[in-house]
Queue: 3 jobs
Job 1
Amino acid sequence: MNDALALPVGTTLDRFIHRKQEDFPYATGELSQLLRDIALAAKIVSREISRYDQNTTGAVGLQNVQGEQQQKMDMIANIRFIRALRNGGEVCAIVSEEEEDIIHTGNAHAKYIVAMDPLDGSSNLDVNIPVGTIFSVYRRVSTQQEQGTLADCLQQGTQQVAAGYILYGASTMLVYTTGRGVNGFTYEPSLGEFFLSHPDIKIPATGHDYSCNEANVSFFPLGIQNYLAFCKAEKYSSRYIGSLVADFHRNLLKGGIYFYPGTDKNPEGKLRLLYECNPLAFLAEQAGGKATDGVARILEKMPAQLHERCPLVIGSAEMVDKVQKYMTL
Ligand code: AHM
Ligand code: MG
């Protein structure tokens, strides 16, 4: 059954989460609380992003664990989400793009693990282009007597119990799934509430937009190069914001495909399996789309490292299938 059934557009996120919890007679409310904690941090980050402040704008002058320039907002978003999850009490460990090691929240008895990219696409911030937060939730596999472990964090994407993103764009939206469809909520800042605006999102089976960094085309695998030639022959449109959440969101609503393939120099591409590929793959599948590394299903990959990278092909099912066909010719 889909999460949005019987709940009208305009329902607040809080009420939505509460009503959905009632559908599970034995639910303890911990996952509901966790989702509320994420929504709270999202509101705070949305506020910070939408105003100009020298303390929150620009680069820090440091690199993160991936060797990328950290923006002040990267660090602020990281702190805000960690704080909300720590204070909420439902998460024992967090994996963040901004931190090399597992973050232990101090809630050793808590049931859940969160992997997150606190601010994806943050290099776009200073030019006022949309950015996002991506999150993924797992139930821990270790006992609740100890801190979260590496094994808790390195689970297959199929084990996710929830995943979603926040898009800080012309409006701020929270889109999430708990494995029963995908629902989108739009933030109304004057009321401080997210409202159900996009119930039961289904990605069109195909589309006419493709998103990739085409400057890298000569380094892409031959199958992807041939797929791009097909897109051009079909007169598809190229649409690349360079913010994964924003590109994914457009394709989710309108149909389309996003890919960030491997190259000779970076065979695993750029995006991270745990907190970029897996959560978006879960959402794509729940909306009727697909996500692969070009050939194999993303959600079945067994991660070996916290920050491992993975090629990503994601979007409308027929388009992702077509890429797979070109990759295996
Ligand atoms: P980030 O997590 O450091 O922001 O990197 C991820 C971003 C995605 O949002 C975007 O799709 C991609 O990197 C853009 O990369 P490129 O500039 O190589 O096209
Ligand atoms: Mg990022």
Note: The mean pLDDT is 93.
Job 2
Amino acid sequence: QKVSVIGLGYIGLPTAALIARGGCQVVGVDVSAHVVETVNSGRVHIEEVDLDGLVQGVVARGNLRASLEVEPSDVFIIAVPTPVAEDRAPDISHVLNAARTVASVLKPGDTVILESTSPVGTTEAMRDLFAQLRPDLRMPGQSGAGDIAISYCPERVLPGRILVELIDNDRCIGGITPRCARKALAFYRQFVRGACITTTARAAEMVKLVENSFRDVNIAFANELSVIAERMDIDVWEVIRLANRHPRVNILQPGPGVGGHCIAVDPWFIVHGDPENSRLIRTAREVNDGKTDHVVACASDLIDEYPGEDIACLGLAFKANIDDFRESPAVKVAARLARRYGRRVKLVEPYAQALPMEFAGTGAELIDLDTALEQCSVFVILVDHDMFKSVPVDERTDKAVYDTRGVWPDQPRRLAPASLGRMAV
Ligand code: SAJ
């Protein structure tokens, strides 16, 4: 069985490598010559636990190679990006471009599976594009059984655990017809240990969007609580911990906003599909984005109470214990503070080799945690890296701290920042 994986990004490359390890002949297709060269030399262009060794092995054994061109195959997996445009409309142009190249090599009996997070109806749109470009082939759901099988099967993996979760997570497989779904199911069964459950393509598209929206709405609840609790001078982490002792309550953790490439994006696909009826989902997005502005304002209030003192921003990653800084609320907050306070701002990020470009020209610099503890008086905690949690309280009793992640719960209480102080008195 020959498999082509279109798009060698965070999902496509690990997927291609896993299928290749299972013994299939896999061709990874990407528009970037750099990515193709890197993979063909047995190396990786993305950071992910254990991926480098896996890719090196399957390339050396000849089971995986990369190419700029799509080749005839038995199975095609499309895993290209689906960003949102400025106006929040989903941009499925990469999916349709990938589908165009696949169409040119399709033959009866082939299976096409879309994995990219997509607005509802994208898999059908892909089917219609195939029908238009290949009138010689019968498409599923149009008349009779169809010559090719088309399905949607979203990925659900967590960065940092991608290879484990690709195998262990349950998969939801949506076919254009039940027969398409059964064909895709037989394919995934070869390398997925989790349950594989079939449904329609439209339902599967919605499932993916709903999963990430569920998380966004729940994080928004925690973020909204954190602002309310701050005004009421209550420790939100204690409130959440105690409320979660209720057997049916499970509140998530507040933070400086929501980052990453999925949770802050996918809810817009639902909102765009039905703006009138998605008020809660839209509001959650606004609450989470607004939390970033709130953190900048509160941190600035605190900093203004310590004129001339150095400020340590702890963490830049989009979440704990990873080295991914894209779409990170921590970067957004720290960069805005750096633009305002310049070289007084020091950044502590054990996972960064260099500062992200957002800090160019601000005068802010990267320092280590020990130096920050010696040199800085004000601490703004933006990421809950384990390394930060382990600072003993006696090393930070004299610091003024704005903690967005509840990393130092035992920090001695000090007067709240000016704006909150007025409320509290
Ligand atoms: N966050 C909080 N509070 C929390 C949990 C998360 O503020 O209690 C923040 C994080 O700090 C981060 C953001 O949310 O900035 C997203 O982090 P995450 O760990 O919730 O999710 P991602 O983006 O790493 O991965 C998500 C996962 N989706 C779900 O958990 C429903 C993953 O399974 C998906 O495969 C992935 O999106 C994706 O590719 O769609």
Note: Confidence is low (pLDDT under 50) at residues 415-425.
Job 3
Amino acid sequence: MVKKYGTGMMAVMLMMVLVLAGCGAGNGNNAAGNAASPSPSQEANATATETPSEAGNDGKEQVVNVYTARHYDIDSQLYDAFTQETGIKVNEIKGTAEELVERLKREGESSEADLFVTVDGGVLNYAKQNGVLQPIESAAVDSQVPAELRDTDNNWVGIATRARVIVYAKDRVKPEQLSTYEDLASEQWKGKVLVRSSSSLYNQSLLASFIELNGEQAAEAWTKGIVANFARDPEGGDRDQAKAIVAGAGDVAIMNTYYVGQMLHSKEAEEVKVAEQIGVFFPNQDTTGAHLNISGVGLVKHSKNKENAIKLIEYLTSAPAQTKLTQGSYEFPVNAEAEKPELLQEWGPFKAQTLDFAKLGEHNKQAVELMNKAGWK
Ligand code: FE
């Protein structure tokens, strides 16, 4: 299983750094800062109230140690809220998904990690295949997260989903002109398509989904077609594609939905202005559906705080926490009871791809090869 990834997976994980750098624009540093160093007053409070005698019966502080490759402010806020509700402290240990999986393998039984959190279904499955996870047994989780957003063996469960869709210049493109990802490779979009580099795991998983749904030949033809329609050599993250549309470099871009929400509610006026000038289009509604990817949490095989870890998973997937998450990140909740932000409600329900998220990882190497072959930089 590991071999399937080989150098491809190495490449994938290098991309994770880029992906996360993309995610982090404007909030990544804060997230790291918040997690790494609680304010002195918080520290003081914690020390003052959590004396050993007041902790659990065994006198130990109640904790959950989370190895996370997700660098979002909202995650840290949710962990803090969990601590306030339960008294269980959450320690975030950050890294790229590859680093963290390698670390879990290396540490084995001596690992202090209880949970593994990351974006991308392929990566979650990579952790499972590497034997660092175990089944999550919780009726609450099973009822809060639909089966299609959980691993088949419950080694991981989804905490949020995101769609990778088409955004367009509202002043130059009518939504009626748009239909499918496949159509972006047609003559009408020559020199008008914007998308980030092939080193982005987001693009690799998008193409992996096409390999799974349409076959390798069709995926290869699409890759060549889209590259031929590029408005420019790929540069920047997803937000930069939106900015390039507004700057007139191209008319349409492939982008993750949550960036549009984050930009519309950004502290930077420029980002808000850009987001207001682009429309969101969910492609392939009459065919295979819009590309969906997932963020999830896995229970580490040698977790020493399993009960607390499961409590945290139950909390993260509960309706109140899911409401906070979607309102903070503009990802889609996995719990149908969560209250979505107005923007997501406006977008309405959409048809999403239905495929085993594990396939995104299984086809990763092939996807990278196709992109290299087509000259997608
Ligand atoms: Fe992102």
Note: Residues 22-23, 256 surround fe (iii) ion (CB under 6 Å).
